[in-house]
Specification:
Radius of gyration: 31 Å
Distance between the termini: 98 Å
Helix content: 25-40%
Strand order of the largest sheet: 4-9-11-10-6-7-5-8
Number of helices: 8
Number of strands: 11
Largest sheet: 8 strands, antiparallel
């Protein structure tokens, strides 16, 4: 039985078959990556059914971001070994890209969570709540016994960011020690921290915590601690742990410093 003659496709028809532009086919022909089966006497290029599988493979490789040069090198002398090698390389690249995307997703998820937390927060009111265990990664401790300037905070932060290899400072918080608070020293940052979703670093034990949401400039935060401590005492508690400052609304969300929102969390126990 005779085989049916192969169907011929014009450049436009072949491009439409794959949902691409004619210019793509012309470009691939120009660089020698994929050429039409032939050219008719009237000068029109044509492609055939037998080229569909090959071109489909080429498009799949391009969709996977395989560089054109690598595809050209492969199609010059294809083999199962070369295909496996190319696939292995692309898998590693894809895994790296997936990791980056997961990190970006985690960043934006944290931002959404913080915005939602602020929307439901009682600003300026101290609350006593039970919190679960949480994981944190900490910076090295501040060696200075004096109040921490903005420049010193930024220096510590810059070193911390490089150490833990994170992008930006939006998720970094500050810690005041319980000893400093008892002595009325509210302008010294002992160390910085970032929450750890991968459960690495150290655990902050769950328990009873005082939580206070402050709306205002960052340089005014030390001024609220006297009020926080007095409210904790008024409610029949005392501080037994460090203060964790979490900066929920910052310059990332507003250009008005008076609209910044900081969350202060301190472990307490009943008197």
């Amino acid at each position: 039985m005779k085989r049916k003659k192969e169907k011929l496709y014009s450049t436009g028809e072949f491009a439409k078959y794959f949902g691409i532009k004619k210019d793509t086919l012309l470009y691939y022909d120009k660089i020698g990556l994929f050429s039409p089966m032939g050219i008719k006497s009237n000068g029109y290029r044509y492609y055939t059914t037998s080229q569909i599988d090959l071109f489909g493979t080429l498009l799949s490789l391009r969709e996977m971001n395989v560089p054109i040069k690598e595809i050209q090198a492969y199609f010059q002398n294809p083999s199962p070994e070369k295909l496996r090698e190319m696939a292995t390389i692309q898998i590693k690249k894809i895994e790296t890209e997936i990791k980056k995307l997961q990190e970006v997703k985690a960043l934006f998820t944290n931002i959404v969570d913080m915005m939602q937390e602020v929307e439901g927060a009682s600003l300026g009111q101290l609350e006593i709540k039970q919190l679960p265990d949480e994981w944190f990664i900490y910076s090295k401790q501040n060696e200075s016994d004096f109040q921490t300037s903005i420049q010193e905070w930024q220096d510590i932060c810059g070193e911390f960011v490089q150490e833990i290899n994170i992008k930006g400072t939006a998720m970094i918080g500050s810690i005041l020690t319980v000893e400093d608070m008892r002595q009325g020293q509210f302008r010294r940052i002992d160390r910085l921290y970032v929450k750890s979703e991968q459960q690495i670093g150290e655990v902050r034990e769950g328990g009873t915590y005082a939580i206070f949401y402050y709306k205002g400039k960052h340089d005014s935060i030390p001024e609220i601690y006297s009020y926080i401590l007095s409210e904790i005492k008024r409610k029949g508690f005392e501080i037994v742990g460090d203060a964790y400052e979490e900066y929920l609304i910052t310059e990332l969300a507003t250009n008005k410093a008076e609209d910044y929102v900081t969350k202060v969390v301190i472990k307490v126990s009943s008197i």
